[in-house]
Amino acid sequence: MTDRAPQPVDRQLPTEESRDLLALVREIAQREIRPRAAEEEDSGRFPREVFTLLSEAGLLGLPYDGQFGGGEQPYEVYLQVLEELAAARLTVGLGVSVHSLACHGLAGYGSKEQQSAHLPAMLGGGLLGAYCLSEPAAGSDAASLTTKAVRDGDDWVITGTKAWITHGGVADFYTVLARTGAPGPKGITAFLVPGDAEGLTAAVPEKKMGMKGSPTAQLHFDGVRVPDSRRIGEEGQGFTIALAALDAGRLGIAACAVGVAQAALDEAVTYALDRKQFGHPIADFQGLRFMLADMATKIEAGRALYLAAARLRDAGKPFSRQAAMAKLFCTDAAMAVTTDAVQILGGYGYTADFPVERLMREAKVLQIVEGTNQIQRMVIARHLAGPETR
């Protein structure tokens, strides 16, 4: 394998501070994340110490308010941090995105008292979060969730099962969506549940195609009691909170997808320059050069799309349609680019000796999480043509 290092992405960043931030992220990724990624993914090891390091470096609360320990960075910058982390190891990049998603409800809808009590530890105190919306029978149709929260004096008692929870069983806190009222989206409320709450247990993590180092597990709530002071927002406001979080989270997935694709392209270019056939580097052959050109174009287009959506968010403008477009395009692009990277490496690309096979397996899940790409198409179409009339 070549020891030639890929060139860093030439990023257009808004401030000198953000340029220094990205330099720090690249240093951490190169020193602490990338060297152990393949081995730890193969063994299924979750790198909790990396998240502790990122918290200490102020990288787990980048888009949030500085008075509570956040980094006060625009989404335009935060997402490029995610991209760099995901390029080094998707378990880490996606994990930071999920943690940010878990903080979103309290940061956006919590009271000042709740924010003061919990956000400093969540954003920069070494804690790690998870987001609990999906259930075994409520995935794309999240509004049909059945996990219940029943009022009991000053407490709520939560009973039910959540599924496909990233960081399930290892998180320190969970943002949980539970039914407190009638069926449908208006009967859902959000809660902040401690990871060590009595009655909360995690199932054995799922055995997955990729991201084996990131635990994904069902969570069982067996009469979990939480005080009303941990209810986020108003009763019945949970689904609104969830959708707002998902719009932001989809941009995180888009950025992670571009990071995975960029890592695959870097590997493919390096290999194509080193590998010789018929007396020439295979990068000399037009068919392969065209593949590389198409891969690079998809990546640049995806990056431009997620950054355009991020800038809308930073400006306080609606960005739901653009977030769905970015998630759709970037994750489809990542799947295509990683597949082509395996093809360029040929037989070597199909082995675990090179990272492209791992990147290809990891890219697949990005087309599924935070709303499948079929759901993204529905979201986009509704913005264009209104809701379905059937």
N-to-C order of helices and strands: HHHHHEEEEEEEEHEEHHHH
Low-confidence stretches: none
Please give the largest β-sheet: 4 strands, mixed
Mean pLDDT: 96
What's this entry about, in short?
This protein is of the alpha+beta class and 390 residues long.
What attributes does this structure have?
390 residues; 4-stranded antiparallel β-sheet; 51% helix; globular; 4-stranded mixed β-sheet; single chain; alpha+beta
Tell me the layout of helices and strands.
Blueprint (H helix, E strand, L loop, with lengths): L15 H28 L4 H9 L18 H14 L1 H20 L2 H13 L4 E4 L15 E5 L2 E12 L6 E7 L8 E7 L5 E3 L13 E12 L3 E2 L5 H37 L1 E2 L2 E2 L4 H29 L5 H26 L10 H11 L6 H13 L5
Parallel strand pairs: 1-4
Antiparallel strand pairs: 2-3, 3-7, 4-5, 5-8, 6-7, 9-10
Helix pairs in contact: 1-3, 3-4, 3-6, 4-5, 4-6, 6-7, 6-8, 6-9, 7-8, 8-9, 8-10
